[in-house]
Amino acid sequence: AAVASAVAGCGLLGAAAWRRGGGASSLAPHPATAPLGEFIRADDEGEKDDAEEKEKGDEEDKNDKEDKGDQAKQEKAKFGHRPKSLNSVPVTNATLEKMPKKSKGSSSAIKIDEDGKINTYYLPGATVVDNGKSVEYRPPYRFYLMKTDTTDYSKEENFYKPIFPGKTFSVDMDFRGSNGPSCGCNINFYLVDMPVGFPGKDKDYYCDAQCFPDMGCCHEFDMNEGNENVQQITDHACTGHYSQDSSWKCNKWGDPEVKITPPEFGKGSGNTIDGTKKFTFSQRFDVHGDDLTITTTISQDGKTLKKTMNSNGEMQNMLEKLQQGMAFVTGYWTAPDMNWMDGESCGSGTEHCSEEPAYISNWRITSNDSPVPSPSPNPSPNPSPSPSPSPSNDVEMTCGWCSSGSCGGC
């Protein structure tokens, strides 16, 4: 009776020990006659082992996350986040006198097709060729889109500020061969909320989101910056509330950011878009209530890449400025530490830009409810239709607010 009572009293504990141990060998040699306390101790020790194993697993998960976090920080530290200085030079009356002949064009008048109407504006100091349809870029100059051929940047009414929400901006870009602008080179066009109320160190009333010393601090939308290895689009709003640095008035790192690198865009035919050959860059601004969506399309020889910036608080903040109109800036500058932009292809070492020229042509601004002009594969007075993209070559990506800071490849 005593034995039966012992067995009945610890049957559940014995079963638990059996299941945990995987068979009879894990129990005492004679479970029916073993004292009840041994079963209790065995079960307690098993639970302790389980807890220790779980704690060990949790610690490994934590260490794994920390390692991945450290790796991400190291990658960011290796490539950096944004430029440490503004290496481009504005064209003013003073710099015009010093510009070499090859950097100073005979005409600065640029023709822009706006919904089928050809309008003439100016990029003072720029070399505009092909009857006003193409701009030749050489470092280190930046140019402002103006209503007249003036370098008086103190007056807002002198700037031509397109209202991009509801519009699509398109250009053809040509870096002309494998020896064209590559690592360390930055060919760009972007928007800033200038002029500011003081001339600044360059005497051009400039501002951007990096808030460099003796320059203005303002909203900046990088429509495009890149070279043969990369194309990058970045929103730099100015809400004054940034966890990266409480002193920031504007988001220096940008959010959202879209970066297009190999094998989508890069040097050579192995990429969807070969950066050494001419391609069409198109950017569409769509507004739905307070939300802004920006879709960038890059096309070449029937192949197409699409990248979308979805709306978030930073984009909503930028929308307010875009609807008011922002100054259009475009230029070409170089730096030995351009790794923040092209490090994925060029590495983390010192870079040396080739300083070879780049060409941006066939400028078009089209209302989104109107047909978008087709890109022309070769220079011609009027863009000619391109073949429809093949489904097998289409690469369409949608990127929103990426926590990693880059939407490339998502």
How would you characterize this protein structure?
The chain is α+β, with helices and mostly antiparallel strands and 410 residues long. It is 22% helix and 28% strand. The chain has 6 helices and 21 strands. It has helices at 2-9, 11-21, 36-79, 93-98, 313-324, 339-346; strands at residues 89-90, 109-114, 117-122, 127-129, 134-137, 141-144, 167-174, 185-192, 207-208, 216-217, 220-227, 230-236, 257-260, 265-266, 273-274, 279-288, 291-300, 303-309, 327-334, 358-367, 395-396. Strands 2, 3, 4, 5, 7, 16, 17, 18, 20 and 21 form a 10-stranded mixed sheet that branches. It has a 7-stranded mixed sheet with strand order 1-6-19-8-11-12-13. The protein has a two-stranded parallel ribbon with strand order 9-10. Strand 11 and strand 12 form a beta hairpin. Helix 2 (11-21) packs across helix 3. The longest helix has 44 residues, at 36-79. The protein is globular and about 80 Å long. The model is unreliable at 1-42, 68-78 and 375-410 (pLDDT under 50).
Gist?
The chain has 410 residues and is an alpha+beta fold.
Which features would summarize this protein structure in a list?
single chain; 410 residues; alpha+beta; 10-stranded mixed sheet; 7-stranded mixed sheet; globular; disordered N terminus
Write the layout of secondary structure elements.
Elements: H1 2-9, H2 11-21, H3 36-79, E1 89-90, H4 93-98, E2 109-114, E3 117-122, E4 127-129, E5 134-137, E6 141-144, E7 167-174, E8 185-192, E9 207-208, E10 216-217, E11 220-227, E12 230-236, E13 257-260, E14 265-266, E15 273-274, E16 279-288, E17 291-300, E18 303-309, H5 313-324, E19 327-334, H6 339-346, E20 358-367, E21 395-396
Parallel strand pairs: 1-6, 2-20, 9-10, 14-15, 18-21
Antiparallel strand pairs: 2-3, 4-5, 5-20, 6-19, 7-16, 7-20, 8-11, 8-19, 11-12, 12-13, 16-17, 17-18
